Amino acid sequence: MFHTQSDVVFVKALKVEAVIGVYEWERAITQPLLIDIALETDISRAAVSDEVKDALNYKEVCDDVTAWCQAIKAQLLEHLAGQIADKLLEKYSCDKITLSVAKPTAIEQADAVGVQITRYAQAASNGSGNQADTSSADDA
Ligand SMILES: Nc1nc2c(c(=O)[nH]1)N=C([C@H](O)[C@@H](O)CO)CN2
Predict the structure, then answer these.
(1) pTM as predicted
(2) Cα 35 to ligand 1 centroid, rounded to whole Å
(3) CB of 38 shorter than 6 A to ligand 1
């Protein structure tokens, strides 16, 4: 089966103040984080209906990610990014997430440092550990 579209809902440079860092002094303060999120999702229904109920609501995504960052209080950006990606995949209907989390004030000589990860929604399983083949001879 051929895919004829690829849609993304994105958030660029979401600013969050959170406890983040491995050093003792970092555990006593909040620091700014800049977060980019790309959620690969089918926007067809919202494109036709023009109703936010049919859309993956980026306002909800921003509110959730902000709350999660502030609750997790991670040491490493790797841990924070992994947790957020897992939670987004669990809550929102999307096939793939690319997420970057940056610390713009961590290294004086750099504009920002951080991590970028890509995660995929779990493919439907046929019990064999392989991806289910949902195609039929008619698809050929
Ligand atoms: N790969 C990483 N390296 C470092 C991290 C991190 O989260 N991932 N964190 C720190 C410190 O918290 C740093 O930001 C303090 O300036 C160091 N290296």
Answers:
(1) 0.88
(2) 16
(3) no
Q: Is any ligand 1 atom within 6 A of the Cβ of residue 106?
A: yes
Q: Does any ligand 1 atom lie closer than 6 A to the CB of residue 117?
A: no
The residue whose C-alpha atom lies closest to atom 14 belonging to ligand 1 is: 106
Which domain range does residue 73 map to? 8-123
Helix axes 58-72, 77-91, angle to 10 degrees: 140
Contact assessment for residue 105 and residue 31, using Cβ atoms and an 8 Å cutoff: yes
Instruction: Read off the CATH number of the domain in which 116 is found.
Output: 3.30.1130.10
Question: Is this complex's ipTM strictly greater than 0.90?
Answer: yes
| Length of the chain as a residue count | 140
- pLDDT class for 122, splitting at 50, 70, 90? confident
What integer is the mean pLDDT of 58-81? 98
